Amino acid sequence: MVGKMMSSGTREGWAPRGFPADRAAAERLREWLQESDGKGLDAVGLDFSAADLSGGNFSESWFTEAMLVGTNLAGADLYRADLEGADLSGANLTNASLVRANFDDATLRGATLDGADLVKASLYDVDASGASFRGTRLMGASLLDVNLCGADLTNAVVDENSFKVKIDENTVLDGFSGTIFGPVEALTEEGPKELGGVDLEQWIRERNGNVRVIPSRSGTH
Question: Which residues contact 94 (CB under 8 A, 6 or more apart)?
Answer without folding.
Answer: 74, 75, 112, 113, 114, 115, 116
